């Protein structure tokens, strides 16, 4: 009982302090995350003024749960399809930033004499910008529709993936205590296979299951199912030797591809907010203000390195990808901070006991300072760009303009390029899934079969079942793309191509034979020659079986249907077509949606009367009204409350339109009138009442007393919802709905 009481009292101290401090930070217009960290310092053991937490260890357990939900919601917002769509700009920028900051952070750690492992973790912490802080800053500053904001958010998507990979790699290095090339490569391959397997199997199964039970999934059951799936993947990841955070991220990214993704994200947000708050408070609890003062010089150095390094590497990476100089500078200044992943990596280093305790509060302090300066750095980007533009020679500016315009042209890819990339993607996907299935089968399922059916019969049955299970995958490895347009053009174009094309098929056949040989050699005690013969026969069956071909096609069709379900659903209800938006983004034009408020002066007016094109230089391209979509509306089309209007324009035009709408169409709310809530009341018609002999319609109760007659009791009978022609009589008990004060003041 005492342990439970201490846990409850600790939570009370944490949440009350966090609530008070975050309200103060909201008032000061500072990020809430900073408030949580300050609350942690106040409730931590280093503070002797306020009540402190009595059992920090139990709070750390809750903080670990907070990390799980943070990564789960990050995965929900991540989506592997979103990663594939962010383009070369985001990938080039993210790689440049992460690689550059990793090197600078590692070198700085060594220069400060902190040792190899501390320096390695420091490099990882300094290389990740804060998705939460930047997203919030863009929202608060009204910059979400700006062109550079799209570039920054794309970079953050790629950085999120790098951060998850970095967690796994740093964990591996921390356990081995040394860098070995083969071991690191083995970890990377293992991670890649695990991610690919979980993603493919998850997309194949989970959306179909959720779709089947959709009518039974209300808010409560969907929340429970989502959390259960998250924790199930956490368990699988930890059993496979990975971190719990990785498992949560994977399940979030799988559920991100379902049509229920936004619903799940909305349901899980309160849970994430609660445990996330506990996590950030626990971060602050580990900070000792005296230690911060002791390491004030390293904190200052690292703060300058983060801000200068992120700006330089971010600007260079975006510029390298072919974006204009202005976009590159704005992106670099927006990324000049570190955030939640730095805390997670710092916690990881402490839990693995490979980093010193002083590193944690130092990194948190650097994050706090850089987060504080984030809005100011974003605002300073444009003046900085103008200063840079004035300093750069004219010929350099022309060269940069030619480079950025030339990089956006579309180059025709060769058929070989398309074919090889498609084959690599197909072979990697299906081979990874096959390897994991074979491993799981031989490790867990086959021993159970042999236990119940001993001898060669059990082994043969186990072999047959696993071969049937992987046969559709093997067929896809061998046969996919053999009848594609690229393959046919290359085959018919040149006789010399045919040898290479046949070689590609043979290589895939040999790969499938090797995959088949794995369970055969484990389960059958036969000569090698016979084993190869069995494998070859199996592959022959895979190639020529029509039944297997149909099964393979159906499995693939189901996978891609599940993968595209959310995108198709979003396009039905989307205010902006994503493809059109991306196409316009390259031309410095944007689409933005605005909702027509109930009290807006634009309600009831036609587009011709409003004349947004002349006043704000924007065009209304779509009106979304309920389920109705009006594309390219005419001038006579009128606006109604809750209409969503989609307008097109440049950064400056949209900003002008936003301010115009807020200023010109703003209507002050009328002062509240002296009204009360309505209630059910009753009164009896006394002798001499003026209501006697009057009908309900002629009595004036509705007009003068503002009440509605809903029933009359007369003797032993009662009338419910009486007709307006009903005549009042002496002694009637009348039931009305209205404001009690007005009924009482009316002369009955």
The end-to-end distance, rounded to whole angstroms, is 64 Å
The helical percent reads: 55-70%
How are the strands of the biggest sheet laid out side by side? 1-4-2-3
Shape: globular
Indicate the radius of gyration in whole angstroms: 33 Å
Tally the helices: what do you get?
30
Uncertain stretches: 406-413, 574-587, 665-672
User: What class would the helix/strand composition place it in?
Assistant: alpha+beta
pLDDT averaged residue by residue: 75
What is the number of strand segments? 8
Strand content: 5-15%
Reported for the largest beta sheet, the result is: 4 strands, antiparallel
Structural notes for this entry:
The protein has helices spanning 2-27, 32-43, 56-78, 80-85, 87-111, 116-126, 131-141, 147-176, 181-212, 219-239, 244-255, 261-285, 289-294, 296-320, 325-334, 340-351, 359-391, 394-407, 415-452, 456-479, 485-493, 495-523, 528-544, 546-573, 578-585, 607-610, 612-616, 651-664, 701-704, 740-745; strands spanning 590-595, 619-625, 628-631, 644-649, 679-684, 707-714, 717-720, 733-738. The chain has 748 residues and is an alpha+beta fold. A 4-stranded antiparallel β-sheet has the order 1-4-2-3. It is globular and about 110 Å long. Residues 406-413, 574-587 and 665-672 have low confidence and may be disordered.
């Amino acid at each position: 009982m005492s342990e439970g009481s201490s846990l409850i009292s600790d939570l009370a101290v944490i949440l009350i302090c966090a609530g008070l401090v975050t309200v103060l930070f909201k008032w000061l217009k500072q990020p809430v995350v900073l408030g949580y960290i300050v609350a942690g310092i106040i409730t931590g053991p280093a503070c002797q003024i306020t009540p402190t937490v009595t059992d920090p260890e139990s709070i750390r357990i809750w903080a670990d749960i907070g990390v799980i939900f943070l990564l789960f919601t990050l995965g929900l917002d991540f989506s592997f399809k979103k990663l594939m769509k962010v383009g070369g700009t985001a990938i080039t920028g993210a790689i440049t930033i992460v690689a550059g900051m990793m090197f600078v952070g590692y070198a700085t750690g060594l220069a400060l004499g902190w040792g190899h492992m501390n320096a390695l973790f420091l490099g990882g912490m300094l290389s990740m910008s804060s998705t939460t802080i930047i997203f919030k800053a863009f929202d608060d500053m009204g910059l979400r529709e700006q062109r550079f904001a799209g570039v920054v958010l794309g970079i953050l998507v790629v950085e999120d993936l790098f951060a998850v990979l970095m967690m796994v790699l740093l964990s591996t290095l921390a356990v081995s205590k040394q860098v070995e090339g083969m071991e690191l490569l083995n970890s990377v391959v293992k991670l890649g296979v695990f991610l690919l397997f979980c993603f493919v199997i998850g997309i194949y199964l989970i959306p179909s299951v959720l779709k089947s039970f959709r009518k039974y999934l209300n808010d409560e059951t969907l929340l429970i199912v989502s959390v259960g799936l998250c924790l199930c993947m956490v368990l699988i990841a930890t059993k496979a030797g990975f971190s719990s955070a990785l498992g949560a991220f994977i399940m979030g990214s799988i559920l991100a591809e379902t049509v229920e993704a936004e619903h799940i994200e909305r349901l899980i947000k309160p849970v994430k907010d609660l445990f996330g708050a506990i996590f950030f408070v626990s971060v602050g609890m580990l900070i000792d203000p005296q230690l911060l003062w002791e390491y004030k010089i390293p904190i200052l150095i690292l703060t300058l390195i983060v801000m200068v390094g992120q700006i330089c590497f971010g600007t260079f990476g975006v510029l390298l990808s072919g974006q204009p100089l202005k976009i590159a500078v704005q992106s670099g200044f927006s990324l000049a901070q570190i955030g939640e992943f730095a805390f997670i990596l710092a916690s990881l280093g402490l839990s693995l006991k490979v980093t010193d305790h002083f590193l944690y509060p130092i990194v948190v302090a650097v994050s706090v300072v850089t987060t504080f300066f984030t809005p100011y750095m974003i605002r300073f980007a444009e003046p900085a760009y103008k200063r840079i533009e004035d300093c750069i020679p004219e010929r350099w500016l022309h060269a940069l303009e030619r480079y950025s315009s030339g990089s956006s042209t579309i180059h025709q890819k060769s058929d070989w390029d398309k074919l090889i990339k498609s084959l690599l993607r197909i072979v990697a996907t299906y081979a990874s899934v096959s390897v994991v299935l074979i491993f799981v089968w031989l490790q867990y399922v086959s021993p159970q079969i042999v236990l119940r059916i001993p001898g060669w019969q059990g082994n043969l049955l186990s072999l047959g079942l696993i071969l049937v299970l992987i046969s559709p995958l093997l067929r896809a490895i061998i046969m996919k793309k053999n009848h594609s347009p690229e393959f046919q053009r290359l085959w018919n174009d040149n006789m010399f191509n045919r040898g290479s094309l046949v070689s590609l098929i043979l290589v895939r056949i040999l790969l499938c034979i090797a995959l088949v040989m794995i369970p055969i050699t484990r389960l059958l005690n036969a000569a090698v020659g016979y084993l190869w013969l069995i494998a070859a026969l199996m592959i022959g069956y895979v190639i020529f079986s029509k039944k297997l071909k149909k099964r393979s096609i159906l499995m693939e069709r189901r996978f891609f249907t599940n993968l595209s379900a959310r995108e198709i659903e979003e396009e039905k209800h989307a205010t902006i077509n994503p493809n059109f938006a991306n196409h316009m983004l390259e031309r410095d034009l944007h689409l933005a949606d605005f909702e027509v408020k109930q009290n807006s002066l634009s309600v009831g007016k036609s587009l011709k009367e409003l004349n947004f094109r002349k006043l704000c230089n924007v065009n209304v391209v779509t009106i979304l009204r309920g389920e109705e979509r009006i594309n390219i509306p005419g001038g006579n089309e009128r606006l109604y409350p809750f209409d969503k209007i989609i307008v097109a324009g440049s950064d400056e035009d949209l900003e002008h339109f936003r301010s115009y709408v807020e200023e010109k169409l703003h209507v002050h709310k009328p002062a509240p009138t002296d009204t009360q809530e309505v209630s059910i009341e009753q009164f009896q018609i006394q002798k001499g009442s003026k209501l006697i002999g009057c009908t309900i319609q002629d009595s004036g109760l509705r007009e003068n007393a503002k009440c509605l007659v809903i029933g009359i009791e007369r003797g032993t009978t009662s009338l419910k919802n009486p007709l307006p022609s009903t005549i009042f009589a002496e002694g009637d008990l009348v039931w009305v709905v209205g404001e009690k004060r007005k009924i009482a003041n009316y002369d009955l």
